[in-house]
Amino acid sequence: MNFKNKNKKYKNKGHVWPLFVKNLKSMYRDKAQLTWLIGYPLLLIIVFALAFNQTYSRSKYDLIIINHDPEEGGTAYSRKMIQILKEEVTDYIQIIGEVNEYSLEEAEKLLKFENIDAIIIIPSNFSELINRRKEPQVFIRTIPDEVTEGVVTSIVKQIIDHLIIIRNGGTPSKIITTRLENTIQLTAFDYLAPGFVIAGVLVCISQISLFFAEEKEKQTLKRLCTTPVARSEILLSGMLSQLFVALIQTILLLFFLYLVGAYFVEGVNIFLLILIPMIFAFTCLGLGLCLASLTKSTASAGGLAWFIILPLQFLGGLFFYFENPISHSIPTYYAARAMRQVMINGATTWNVIGLDITIILSIGVISTLIGIILFRHDTAIL
Fold first, then answer.
1. Nearest alpha-carbon partner for 357 in 288, 279, 295, 283
2. Is the whole-model pTM more than 0.70?
3. How big is the CA angle at 94 (ends 88 and 95), to the nearest 5 degrees?
4. Residue 331: exposure state from Cβ atoms within 10 A (0-12, 13-18, ≥19)
5. Are 118 and 142 in contact (CB under 8 A)?
6. What percent of the chain has pLDDT over 70?
């Protein structure tokens, strides 16, 4: 009886810290795993920075003009319209070749392969209809792009309306345009950058499942269960060591994103930029814990982990915009959305990111509880 009381008293002593240190040392000694843990998200950042760290706004639209309107006399309004296109809207429009240099068939072939953006076809009665104060028509064919269609159509319509006003003796309006300097134009990489931090933390699913699978293969867990160390202490020390690594990883990734020129809003809340990935890391550890309780070897743990990680990465919109009912049911969507709100929009209030954090944390608590329940069975340890 005294022996039982003594053993119970000893069992209540904390073993979390020694196990935590042991786990960190084990991860540090495994250079290949450590390189993968840090190198994978860094490689993602480098690749996407090279591919998408530039703006894709169109500066000019290439047009071919086919004019069937007679050009004799000073009232040839088609000639005046073409002159305006060539001289006054050169910031937006570039005329390819001379007027009527290409036949309609040749122009349509260029348009089909998007070597040009649009064809403007001026009918033979264009000037006549303006002189008779009737509505003139111009035919425009564009590539299947709404922006191109809208810009070219708007410019041509404004020029024709300008000519009609002059013909009717009216005074065209004068538009005074000023430019706001020092504007910010986000690139695709800037939008994706917050998600790369989440993608890096997502590897925690693989790491904790591999960690416990390796402990099973080495029979370490089985031996620990014969000591006064409680299973809860084993789980807690494993999760804390992975959370510590996730913290270091998050700081490194944020710093690296800053170095490669990712956009951070002025006065960004650094605490939230670290807190959100850490909450998500807790969720990942819960999912990894469930997986670890079902696997017996590192090979099976590593393979199954990526069956979870890859859908979470792509369906969560980490690498490209994805808005679908499926995405609303996975934690990566909310983690990436919260990170973008903080990093790009400078959000700090609960009403903006509170729902996202609550959903991530709730999934983490549920998955962790399930993982703990599964680990209570001997089959999860042996």
1. 279
2. no
3. 100
4. buried
5. yes
6. 80
Q: What is the pLDDT of residues 196-226, one digit of tens each?
A: 999 989 888 888 888 777 777 776 666 666 6
| Domain boundaries defined on the chain | 13-54+185-380, 61-167
pLDDT digits (tens, 9 = 90+) for 36-67: 667 777 777 887 777 666 655 556 899 999 99
CA 265 to chain centre: 16
Tokens of 352: 């903006």
Task: Check the CA dihedral 124-62-81-148 and report its sign.
Answer: positive
To 10 degrees, what angle do helices 188-202 and 204-217 make? 20
**Overall fold of domain 61-167:** abc type-2 transporter like fold (3.40.1710)
Q: At CB < 8 A and 24+ separation, what contacts does 39-43 make? A: 40/200, 40/203, 41/196, 41/197, 41/199, 41/200, 41/203, 41/249, 41/253, 42/252, 42/253, 42/256
| 317 CB-near residues (< 8 Å, 6+ apart) | 195, 323, 327, 332, 333, 336
Q: Of 313, 355, 351, 357, nearest to 335 (Cα)?
A: 357
Sheet bearing 61-67, strands edge to edge:
93-95, 61-67, 118-122, 139-142
The alpha helices in the chain, defined as continuous H runs, are 2-11, 16-29, 31-52, 77-87, 104-112, 126-131, 146-167, 188-202, 204-217, 220-224, 231-259, 270-292, 298-315, 331-343, 350-375
Q: Give SS3 for 290.
A: helix
d(CA 124, CA 69): 4
Looking at residue 140, what is its pLDDT?
93
User: What six digits make up the tokens of 6?
Assistant: 């003594």
If you search the block for the tokens 């495994």, which residue do you land on? 30
Contact 183, 92 (CB under 8 A): no
Q: What residue has token string 């020092």?
A: 182
Report the alpha-carbon distance of residue 126 to residue 139 in Å, rounded.
Answer: 11
Pairing of strands 93-95, 139-142: unpaired
